Known about the structure:
single chain, seven-stranded antiparallel sheet, 7 strands, 42% strand
Amino acid sequence: MAGHEDGSPAPAPGAPLPRVLCDTTGLLALGDDAAAGALWRLAEPGQQLDANVVRVPATGRVGTHIEPDLDVLLLVLDGGASLVCSDGELPLRPGVLTWLPHGSARGVVAGPDGVTYLTVHRRRPGMRVQPSGAADRLRPGGA
């Protein structure tokens, strides 16, 4: 395999190229008009990661749950929330990057302005798209 002048390897023929996938400022501009749930999903063929931009409206919540297999990174893009953990609550605000280790209990309670965040984790084979009503659990009073 031939390399570049700087010694770095040349990409394989037909290798995927880096590219911009989403401009989150456009998603954030939707504000309260944004639907609850995933506003964007990584849907590239052959990806090794899953990523989502999620909007939880004011006082909505993602119920406390345990992810047994995957570590998750959560980056708050807009708004605020509390991360509910087994040892209490952690405040989340724009710019806060949080590690949610596999096996840990976690939930999110959106603040008075709602919260929009990015999650990234290793791809899990066999993930399925939720029915359209699945976002209802994110609304205030949702299950």
